Amino acid sequence: MADLPLPPLPGRQAALGTLLAEVADGLVAAQRQLDADAGSRVAGYFETPQGEVTLPPLWYTFNELNVQFEMAARVSRVAAGAGDSGVRLECRLLDPAAVSLFGYAAASGFKVSLTLAPQPAAVPVEES
Fold first, then answer.
1. How far apart are the first and last CA of the chain?
2. Separation CA 81–CA 86 (nearest Å)
3. What pLDDT does 6 receive?
4. Among candidate residues 114, 108, 106, 110, the one with its CA nearest the CA of residue 89
5. DSSP code of 50?
6. Facing residues of 69 across strands?
7. Phi, psi values for residue 102, rounded to 5°
């Protein structure tokens, strides 16, 4: 019996690398927005006349971000051309309707964990 390629999973699709890059881009955009807000509050803080009470601006930073995806997964054979075939891992976020219709087999398979944290500052070492 020949292995036929399975039809694509329904719904919107994106490569895993694209999905993870969008998470990182979203984090950078959120930090920039927090920095811009704090920067605008600095100007207001310094423009406050002496003797008036005002709070200094607060700077918020993301020290660490953890994102976890649990996905339904399946492996299918794909034709690569010239009689060759390869294997493709197809994943999508869990769909409660699919779990209720097809059982937990539709929800098995793949978990991705992404942790974004700033790297410590590099200290230059002087060579003597």
1. 71
2. 9
3. 46
4. 110
5. T
6. 112
7. -110, 0
**In the chain, where does DSSP find H-type helix?**
16-47, 96-102
> Above 90 in pLDDT, residue 33?
yes
Beta-sheet strand order (sheet of 109-116): 84-93, 65-81, 109-116
The upper half-sphere exposure of residue 46, i.e. CA atoms within 13 Å in the direction of its Cβ, equals: 5
pLDDT given for residue 10 in this prediction: 55
For residue 79, what pLDDT is reported? Answer: 74
Using an 8 Å Cβ cutoff, are 28 and 118 in contact?
Answer: no
Q: 70: part of which helix (H) or strand (E)?
A: strand 65-81
The Cα–Cα gap between 68 and 15 comes to: 16
**Rounded Cα distance, 105 and 99, in Å:** 8
